[in-house]
Amino acid sequence: MNELKKELLAALKEYVGDNKDSKAKMVNVLLKNLPTHCEELLNAIKNQSWKEVKFYAHKTKYSFKILNMQEEMAKLEKMEKINEDTADVFTVKRAYAEVEHKSNLICQALKEI
CA distances (Å), 88 to each of 72, 82, 92, in order? Predict the structure, then answer.
């Protein structure tokens, strides 16, 4: 079993316990929400709609919080606190790309759980 899958299983166990039905439901919720929230976040970044960036960064961060992914949570927290007057689109897009990459890896691993 790869390292990411082990981390995800441990995080899910911490979040929902040993109940297989609860774990399955949470996996399904994450597989549905994580890609959707990332896509919404990307659209907000492309449109430079900073209020929406903050909103979708917060929504996306919750999934990473469930999975105890601290690095991605930190990037999303920075997006939540972005200053609309001084926002650097390049920096935000780069942070988003890293979050999206991890999101894709997570979804791939969740499908195998």
Answer: 18, 9, 6
